[in-house]
TrEMBL record:
GO terms for molecular function: oxidoreductase activity. This is Aryl-alcohol dehydrogenase-like predicted oxidoreductase. It comes from the Bacteria. Keywords: Oxidoreductase. CDD domains: AKR_AKR13B1. Residues 13-212, 221-271 form the NADP-dependent oxidoreductase domain. Coiled coil: none annotated. Pfam families: Aldo_ket_red.
Length: 277
């Protein structure tokens, strides 16, 4: 499995997204049945056994009965030395599941501390600031940079952003990763941004790389092919497919070893450009 140096930690380019752990069905869908707790814990442990050492989560990944952070803590603590856990701040939800207003600079410390408490850690490996629209993120990113200086955060990233916001963040503190939605046939306008991230040695970590724009299983193209195509976008591109199903986990891990031929890549690139994948 190929790797990338994410800050000061080398991670396998296939990670694990925890969004699907708390419930079945579409992410954040009200009333979705909770996923079996024992199965979720088993999937997390199996992922690590299979070589996954990069897990993406957030305190707002929860359902009425399950919390992704709590499941990660229960399954994997004490954590392996090489495991990188990335989380996101900015958005948050009421216990009922309703979304709150995005956090301002003064509220971000509380969100960081909540992730620390839920995960049972004294620091967070990687924290993304999730932007809310195209506005300036300087003040909020500076608040996270202060928490990094205080030792609560090791590395910083940004999510749901464009090139201008990346420049704003990099003017404040080092950025090790960008996390945006992207996949085969979905948001092809980001291709140039992905190239820019590579030039700046910033990892690009797409979510919905299998599902695509509708957050469901993508088109007629096999999920493993979609993951392999995404990994072929550049050595700095990581993937974090999420699942609570053991069978899907095994398929995702196998996809990291799939190598597409030049002819296959050219055909898929054309589908991507036309949005017909």
């Amino acid at each position: 499995m190929s790797t990338w140096l994410l800050g000061d930690r080398r991670v396998n380019r296939l990670g694990f997204g925890a969004m699907r752990l708390p419930q079945t069905g579409a992410a954040f869908e009200p009333g979705s049945p909770p996923r079996d707790r024992d199965q979720s814990i088993a999937v997390l442990r199996t992922a690590v056994e299979l070589g996954v050492n990069h897990i993406d989560t957030a305190a707002f990944y929860f359902s009425a009965l399950r919390s992704a952070n709590e499941l990660i803590n229960s399954a994997l603590s004490p954590y392996p030395d090489d495991l990188v856990i990335a989380t996101k701040v900015g958005p948050s939800r009421e216990p009922s599941g309703e979304w709150r207003s995005p956090a301002g600079p003064g509220e971000l410390r509380g969100q960081v501390e909540e992730n620390l408490r839920q995960l049972g850690r004294d620091h967070l490996d990687l924290v993304y600031l999730r932007a809310e629209g195209p506005g300036d993120i300087t003040d909020r990113f500076a608040a996270l940079a202060e928490l990094r200086q205080a030792g609560l955060i090791r590395h910083l990233g940004i999510s749901a952003v464009g090139p201008r916001q990346l420049a704003q963040a990099r003017a404040v503190a080092p950025v090790v990763a960008v996390q945006n939605s992207y996949g085969l046939g979905y948001r092809a306008q980001q291709d140039e941004f992905i190239r820019l991230c590579g030039e700046q040695n910033v990892a690009f970590v797409p979510f919905f790389s299998i599902a695509g724009a509708n957050r469901e299983a993508g088109g007629g193209t096999d999920a493993a092919v979609r993951l392999a195509w995404t990994l072929a976008r550049g050595p700095h591109v990581l993937v974090i497919p999420g699942t609570g199903d053991p069978g899907h986990l095994a398929e995702n891990v196998a996809a990291a070893e799939l190598r597409l031929s030049d002819e296959e890549l050219a055909r898929l690139d054309e589908l991507h450009r036309t949005g017909s994948a």
